[in-house]
Structures are given as structure tokens and as C-alpha cells.
Amino acid sequence: MPTASSTATSSRLLSLLSLLQARRDWPGALLAGRLGVSERTVRRDVDRLRELGYPVRAVKGPDGGYRLEAGSHLPPLLFDEDQAVALAVALRIAVGTGAGIEEAAARALATVRQVLPSRLRQRVDGLEVAAAGGAGVQVGTEVLLALSAAIRATEEIRFDYESPSRPADDGPRPPRRVQPHHLVVRSGRWYLVGWDAVRADWRTYRVDRLRLRVPNGPRFTPREVPGGDVATFLSARFKGSDADAWPCRGEVVLALPVAEVAPFAGDGVVAEIAPGKTRLLTGSWSWAALAAGLLRFGGELEVVDPPQLRAAFADLAGRATRAAGDAGRPGSRGR
């Protein structure tokens, strides 16, 4: 039987390692079938991984098999090309997460980039990542790890919370008690989504504003976030509704070409109805906010629906006239 080349062996070791990471237990015969080799070759490859420092344990049973376990030290990491590029991209993004790991992520990215083949390095270097709306708010890594541990252990957490309406020097307050369910990053900020049993409601907290107390509270039975998807739930809360939809929605026709409206329409629906005229269906958390947001386009507009939006424009017009004082009166001349 011919001996496989070192290149083929290295490639097979990568494939074997990827398979061992994909599920807990692997029967030897199944591994051999997936790799297209004999079970004897699988045993030899497992021994090679052990020599490299990977703790692969033999599993007893009718079929026999192998399991990759956590070791006492970090072995050399082996990645195929797609995994290496994915890791480099993730590290580049992690530099701007505000999770307190920016320096470590930057050093890890430099290490990975240094050993990448030139063709893969060019792919990674071609990726430009910028944080929308500026850099994220810094959050301590230890806080994120503690919250993640509490979520996995389904343990209630206790914390003090500082908000703009109630600053830290507002006197002593009892700690909040929340069942933590999800950690989410949105627009450069970390949020905790949890169930407040006292208020019997789901709540969202900015992680940079909470200070954890120890120890944690009792265990709890996890419940499903409304709608079953935490990203959709959080988006809905930021829109001020229980569903992922703005509570106030209106339709207008703008005297502007669609090309000037679409880039700034957000999640609105844009349609061209004639050259230089665009129909826009959009929403906001209040009628006043919706009307003010539509005025930012700077063109003439016609309200199609609903009447509440027309009333909001009338209210804004009155407030704008009062704010302008004498300059807003007919026939007056601004100074």
C-alpha cells in the first residue's frame, strides 16, 4: 500500500479535527467513511493529533469511537482556509465591539494574518470594517463573561443600574433582580434582555450602565422571548412597540427623485410614481417624530395617510411659528 504524502496527511488531519469539533462522539467506522480511509489510518491520525497536544479520548461502546475534550493547555490550532479567513474577519470585527478585548483581538489578528498565505491575506486585508455611528461604548470583559455565565446557568442576577433619569448619586436603592436571557450587540452597544419577575415584563438594559452584585440569585426556568427571536424583539422595543413594527406609520409623496430619497429612507418603502415624485411609506415611535423626520428630506411633500400625520404637521407648524417669534409672522423681516 503506498504511503500518503505529507500534504495529504496534513489535509486529512485538518478534516479529522474539524469532524471531531462538529459533534461530541464519533464512531471510528463513521470517521473512516467520512475521510475515505481505513479505521487503522484513523487510529494513526488520532495519535498524531494527540502528539500535537489535542486531547482525543477513545470512547468505549459497541461501535467504539473518539471524543475531543478540553485539555489543560492550548494546543497548536489548525484551520482550513475558510476557517482561517472567517477567524481573521471575526477578529477584525471584534476590535470595534466595545467588549474590552480590542487589544487582544488586534494582537490575535496580527498573529493569524502573519501565517496566512498571501492570497488569503489579500482577502482579509481587503475587508474594511467601520463601526456605524462611532466607536462602541466600552464594557468590561469580566462583566460580559459574568452575564454569559449566569445566562448559561439560568441564575437570576442582581445589579445596580444607572440611567439618565436616575443617576448614581440619587441615593441608595435596592438592587434590581432579573432573569437574564440574552446578550445582544446593537449599534456599538451591548444590551441585556431579561425577564423582570417583579414587574412581570421583559426588560432591556444597557450593559455599560449596570453594576453586578454577588452572589447571583436562585435558578430559574428559562422562558421564550416574545416572538421567539431576540433580534426581532429588541428591534421592536427600540421602535416602541410589541411587534417589530413602528407604532406610527404614514404615507407621503415627496417632490424629490427616488434616488435622493431611497438612501435615507431607513426601513421605509420607497416607490417612484413619476419623474421627480416619490411615494414613501415609513414609521416612527410617535406622530410628531414621524412628521419631523419627513421634513429632513427638504422637499415639498403631500400627506396621503393617515389623518394623525396631518395633525402632527399642523402641530409642528404651530410650534415652529411660536419658536420663530416675530420672524415667523407674515410680513416680518428676520434680523
What distance lies between the first and last C-alpha atoms, to the nearest angstrom?
A: 97 Å
The secondary-structure element order is HHHEEHHHHEEEEEHEHEEHEH
Shape type: elongated
Number of domains: 4
Biggest sheet features: 5 strands, antiparallel
If you average the pLDDT, what whole number results? 78
How do the strands of the widest beta sheet line up side by side? 6-5-4-3-7
Percent range for β-strand residues: 15-25%
Number of helices: 11
Number of strands: 11
What low-confidence regions span 5 or more consecutive residues with pLDDT below 50? 128-135
Q: Mind telling me the C-alpha Rg?
A: 29 Å
Task: Chart the SSEs and their pairings.
Blueprint: H1 6-22, H2 28-35, H3 39-51, E1 56-59, E2 65-68, H4 81-94, H5 102-115, H6 118-125, H7 141-153, E3 157-161, E4 176-186, E5 189-196, E6 201-206, E7 210-213, H8 230-238, E8 248-254, H9 258-261, E9 269-274, E10 277-284, H10 287-295, E11 301-305, H11 307-324
Antiparallel strand pairs: 1-2, 3-4, 3-7, 4-5, 5-6, 8-10, 8-11, 9-10
Written description of the protein model:
With 335 residues, the protein is of the alpha+beta class. It has four domains: 63 residues, Winged helix-like DNA-binding domain superfamily/Winged helix DNA-binding domain (Arc Repressor Mutant, subunit A), CATH 1.10.10.10; 45 residues, no CATH class; 94 residues; 78 residues, Alpha-Beta Plaits (2-Layer Sandwich), CATH 3.30.70. The protein has a five-stranded antiparallel sheet with strand order 6-5-4-3-7. The longest helix has 18 residues. The N and C termini lie far apart (97 Å). About 2% of the residues have low confidence.
